Amino acid sequence: MPDFRAKAYFPETKEIKEIKLSDYLSKWVLLAFYPGDFTFVCATDLEAITERYNDFKNANAVVLAISTDSVFSHKAWSDTSPRVKKSPVPLIEDYQKVISSTFGFLNSDTGAARRGIIIIDPEGRLQYLAVFNDALGKDIDHIYNALLGLKTIHDTPESAGHICIIPANWKPGKAPMEIDVVNDIGKL
Predict the structure, then answer these.
(1) H or E element at residue 154
(2) CA within 20 to 30 Å of 176's CA: 54, 70, 91, 152, which one?
(3) What does the DSSP 8-state code read for residue 46?
(4) Which residues contact 103 (CB under 8 A, 6 or more apart)?
């Protein structure tokens, strides 16, 4: 994944710090892109992420929210929005639109980030990417299940001729499917 350096507002400590994506190698990283501060669906996204924040943290994952707003706008939004002020999620500034553009989330019509999510594994590889209609909030339960499924795949050693897969509608706690890539052809 391309690295980036940017300012971020950290609501828990009320600090503005410069971060790099590479600072989070060895952890799972969720980049939650959203169109803008002080908008309606975006506040509900952060509220839903906040409700699962400790679950993500316990899964060795860091959630970072990114929009094309400044860190000053992020701070003002965090201080004033009833939903956002409860969120510990760091808010990354992409005022120059480089991050949104690099990751394919820049809406060329509006100049704002598109709503979406990226999940990056501890080795820095893209494992999940979704772009949503800007009026459609993120399904955080699905994203959390996707993270756990990806962690299961990541942590299950493959043996010769066998792979671990996560079937459709899988839920945490269910066993993954162990597939014999030769003998299981046509049996599913």
Answers:
(1) helix 140-155
(2) 54
(3) H
(4) 2, 31, 33, 118
Closest CA to 30 of 155, 146, 112, 174: 146
Cross-strand bridge partners of residue 113 = 106
Which member of 21, 29, 32, 42 is catalytic? 42
Q: Are residues 71 and 150 in the same domain?
A: yes
Rounded to two decimals, the pTM is: 0.93
CATH code of the domain in which 108 resides: 3.40.30.10
Same domain, 10 and 46: yes
pLDDT, one tens digit per residue, over 107-149 is: 999 999 999 999 999 999 999 999 999 999 999 999 999 999 9
Would residue 164 show up in a list of annotated catalytic residues for this protein?
no
DSSP bridge pairs for 61: 28
State the Cα–Cα distance between residues 11 and 63, nearest whole angstrom.
Answer: 13
